[in-house]
Each structure stands twice: as C-alpha cells, then as structure tokens.
Amino acid sequence: MFGRERTAPAAQAPGEALRLEGVRKVYGAEGNRVAALDGVSLSLPAGSFTAVMGPSGSGKSTLLQCAAGLDRPTGGRVFVDGAELTDGGEAALTRFRRQRIGFIFQQFNLLPTLDVMQNTVLPLKLAGRKVDKARARAVLERVGLGDRLDHLPAELSGGQRNR
C-alpha cells in the first residue's frame, strides 16, 4: 500500500514532492453542500517553498489537509513523492504520514507535561525509530532552542513553541 503509482496518471516530474490531480472536497449533506475544493490540480517540486494564501473560508486548510493525507478528498488523487495517498486504508495512511510527512500545525500540539527535547523526539519514538539525542539537540540549537531543552511548553513563547 502507498507504493509507487500503479496506474497511468500524468507523468511525475523528476523531484516532484507533491501532486494533486483534480482534487475535490465537498462538505455537508444533500441540499446543503459546500465545495471547499473543486478540481484542484497542482505540482510542487521537492525542496521548494510554497505559501498557500487566500481569504478565510477559501479552502486553504482543506487543501493542506487533503495534500497531507489528514483528510480524504471527495474526488481526485493525491501523490506524495510518487506514492498515491488516495487509494489505501486508514492504517496504511497513518503509517505513511508517520514515516514520511512532517507537520507544523496552527495549534502547537505539544504535550504539556513533556519538555522541549521530549516533545521533539516523541514522533520518532512513536514510529519505532532510533532517537539520536545529539542530533535532536543540534537541530534545536539551530532553531534557537538550545537553552530551552528542559523547558515545558507553558514556559515558552508562541514563536518558540512553533519552532
């Protein structure tokens, strides 16, 4: 599941990180439907930086949630690094997200009883991966949190929590 493409969609560009093909997302019941996404297609190259901008209610969060496999589109297909996210079960999708996708949410989603270092390495532990504390420390130092490793989220500023 979530292997490379099996069918013949548009050819994946070399170094393509994300591709959406005709993605639709409709909310609500018959007579009260809202199309948050209506046939969105895009391709983003690996290593690029992309800003998603628009007015409130324009579908930005829905687009990001569908692109990351957090929400299933009503129609269309989503590919991350060549793997289709729209053709598998929930357990396989959860494994794929855990192993291959990183998220920075609007809410911080930090565990309040864990310090900075513990919150940082928790996803690795949950994925059953080896934790390299020296590397984690180096990354935290690089983003300006080297002196906050043992601080709880409540002891950090909003910007520090985001990092």
Automatic annotation (TrEMBL):
InterPro entries: ABC_transporter-like_ATP-bd, ABC_transpr_LolD-like, P-loop_NTPase. One of its GO terms (molecular function) is ATP binding. Keywords: ATP-binding, Nucleotide-binding. Residues 37-163 form the ABC transporter domain. One of its GO terms (cellular component) is plasma membrane. The keyword ATP-binding applies. It comes from the Bacteria. This is ATP-binding cassette domain-containing protein. It comes from Actinomadura latina.
